[in-house]
Amino acid sequence: MTQTGRAWTDVARAHYDGLLDAFTHCTRDHKDAKTLRVGLCWVTGGEFLKRLIDRFVAIYPDVSLTIEDIPTGQCLAAIRRRRLDVAFTYDLGPFSSCCTEVFWQERLFVLLPSRHFLVDRPAIAWSDLAEMCLLVPTGSEGPPVDLRLLQRIATDGGPAVHTCRANQATVILKVQLGQGVTLAAESYARTVAVDSAIWKPVEGQNSVNSIRTVWLDSNPKGVVHRLIAIARNMAEAP
After folding, report:
1. Contact indicator for 167, 135 with CB cutoff of 8 Å
2. Are the C-beta atoms of residues 80 and 21 closer than 8 Å to each other?
């Protein structure tokens, strides 16, 4: 499809989703105004997100807050159709008809086999992995990081990116077997210990992953905009 065709499709989809939004809004009851549905798209949490949710719940204890995973391909549609009120994700490209803002970033970590010659390094540069294979899962949930970031890593002398039709667990097994390395955000790496492998922080250029907050400005729920205001204040605080 041409760029013009994709642009037309995005506009048409936005109008269609808007009609669904209007219909859905009319059928919701008043209790929904006290519910905040949050989606995580390959975002495992992190200190900023934990503090944000803790602060929101403390200020608005009467709001029912739900958190669920959302596949990459469904993230924007879920926001447009208001199945989700807010989503946290990496950069998915153009966010047509949605509001988006980066409130925090996470450092990237690389998973190495335990016998890898780089395991004694305190941090790893992408150039250290130039001759290796970077395994990236692209199962039903999509890749865990921005594909454009992966392209920059490969172009700047980093490892060759190899996408796998597998989930994260299968890719981790491949690393344990010595078939390559993989990467994840710091919050995931510090939470998930892996036998026969070790996480190492990445340093230098392209070593952080920006986490975007996505919401619909036309969402009438006041709780959505209150959450965004809290996140913005936290991000701006020294």
Report:
1. no
2. yes
Distance CA 144, CA 233 (A): 27
Give pLDDT, residue 16.
55
**Same structural domain for residues 9 and 93?**
yes
Can you give the residue range of the structural domain that contains 163?
107-209
Same domain, 18 and 136: no
Cα–Cα dist 128/7, whole Å: 39
Instruction: Check whether residue 131 and residue 158 sit in a common domain.
Output: yes
- pTM score of the predicted model: 0.78
Count CA atoms closer than 13 A to 197's CA, side-chain side: 24
Among 219, 218, 235, 215, smallest CA distance to 95 is for 215
User: How many other CB atoms are found less than 10 A from the CB of residue 135?
Assistant: 23
The CATH number of whichever domain residue 111 belongs to comes to 3.40.190.10
Could you tell me which residues come within 8 angstroms of residue 27 by beta carbon, excluding any fewer than 6 positions away? Answer: none
